[in-house]
Specification:
Layout (H helix, E strand, L loop, with lengths): L9 E5 H18 L2 E5 L9 H4 L5 E4 L2 H11 L2 E5 L5 H7 L5 E4 L2 H12 L7 E5 L38 E3 L8 H15 L8 E3 L13 H15 L2 E4 L3 H4 L3 E11 L5 E4 L3 H4 L2 H4 L17 E6 L8 E7 L8 E4 L20 E5 L5 E5 L3 H5 L4
Parallel strand pairs: 1-15, 2-3, 2-9, 3-4, 4-5, 5-6, 6-7, 7-8, 8-9, 11-12
Antiparallel strand pairs: 1-10, 10-11, 10-14, 12-13, 15-16
């Protein structure tokens, strides 16, 4: 593709790479009987839902809006979990979801009778547990860090009537391999297995980097099969990133070069508005044709379009000096980007482009002033 053909900035999501990821996920489902559902918090480009639902069982939501998207557009099973629900959330979720997972004993006690007595559809009740074990290194993403609000610790389930609970859910991983899951499952069984007797399903959450090149799929299948053989429960996995891993790029243009000790190239992109994990994780995204600082002849700081002083993407080097108008292509930008974009400073959201299996490019959505205006009062 000639990246100059479309108005910058824009995401390009590649159907061929989505299919590649789905092939791996289908293999896991076929080998284990586990059900894999799409975590909408990571990837929610509904233009490709028809492709995703050829393999995935359904979706998992963290809000009423996500649950509606799953029910109305994706189809299949709809699961929901949130750190807390309001009365109106419960009213809106019950007609939409198949599984409803509570984060605390108090929320479970407040709402489980409304869920189990809902007459229009059978809604399966779950609890999110906190095994107090995690191998996530970044505190911002560690759901088991000290003082975490996410999940129920084992000690808090003493004397809780679990007769209305169909399943447990844990989510303790972030971009990790199956050896981490294996160790996590061992801790979960040690702490909670005495409570499994009345359960029907178990959700191993997300954070599984299943479609990554070095991921040990065989070990994942072994962990799932072994757990199922011991407890006879239906297993769910709910990755978001693994579904869209390496399936998209973000293309931007150089607007200006500000001279300095290290020249600043200002782009029509923004780390804080368009790729917030660059600042939150933090991490340095891969850039096509670029190297580490000093590796190539010309090094630049790449800066965003907003007035936030820290809107910096990172330092990169290039074989040739950058020029105003040059297009830069950031790798692996399909997941946790479109879903987290903001219009801070009124900057324009990147357009969304789909590269079809035929090789043709389809501009799915462009954004303008109205998108900024209409979300404000």
């Amino acid at each position: 593709m000639d990246y100059r053909d479309l108005p910058s900035p824009y995401y390009v999501v590649d159907e061929e790479m989505l299919e590649r990821n789905l092939t791996i996920l289908k293999d896991v489902q076929d080998r284990t009987g586990a059900k894999i559902i799409l975590a909408l918090k990571g990837f929610a480009m509904h233009r490709v839902f028809p492709l995703l639902r050829t393999v995935l069982t359904g979706t998992t939501a963290s809000s009423v809006a996500e649950a509606r998207l799953g029910r109305e557009i994706f189809g299949g099973e709809v699961h929901a979990y949130a750190p807390a629900y309001s009365d109106s959330d419960i009213d809106e979720l019950l007609p939409l979801v198949d599984h409803l997972v509570f984060n605390s004993v108090s929320q479970f006690r407040r709402y489980h009778n409304r869920v189990t007595s809902f007459s229009n559809r059978k809604v399966s009740v779950g609890l999110r547990i906190n095994p107090e074990y995690s191998e996530v290194k970044t505190a911002l993403y560690d759901p088991c860090r000290k003082g975490s609000r996410l999940g129920i610790r084992r000690e808090l389930l003493e004397d809780v009537d679990l007769s209305d609970v169909d399943g447990f859910h844990f989510h303790t991983m972030c971009e990790q391999n199956s050896d981490t899951l294996e160790r996590t499952v061992a801790v979960v069984e040690e702490k909670f297995s005495d409570l499994f007797r009345t359960l029907k399903w178990f959700n191993f959450g997300g954070g599984h980097h299943i479609s990554r090149e070095d991921y040990d799929v065989g070990r994942l299948c072994q962990v799932v099969d072994s757990f199922h053989s011991r407890h006879g429960l239906q297993i769910y996995l709910e990755p978001g990133e693994a579904i869209a891993l390496n399936a998209g790029v973000l293309v931007g243009s150089v607007l200006d070069i500000v001279e300095g000790e290290i020249p600043n190239a200002i782009l029509d992109l923004s780390a804080t508005a368009h790729m917030p994990d660059v600042l939150e994780m933090p991490y340095r995204p891969e850039l096509q044709g670029a190297g580490q600082p000093g590796e190539k002849a010309h090094t630049y700081q790449l800066g965003g379009l907003t007035c936030l002083a820290g809107d910096q993407i990172g330092d990169y080097s290039f074989d040739e000096p950058l020029q105003v108008g040059d297009r830069l292509v950031f790798e692996d930008m399909a997941h946790y980007t479109m879903v987290k974009n903001t219009t801070f400073n009124g900057v324009r959201l990147p357009a969304i482009v789909l590269r079809r299996l035929s090789g043709e490019f389809e501009v799915v959505r462009e954004f303008g002033y109205e998108d900024y205006r209409d979300r404000l009062s």
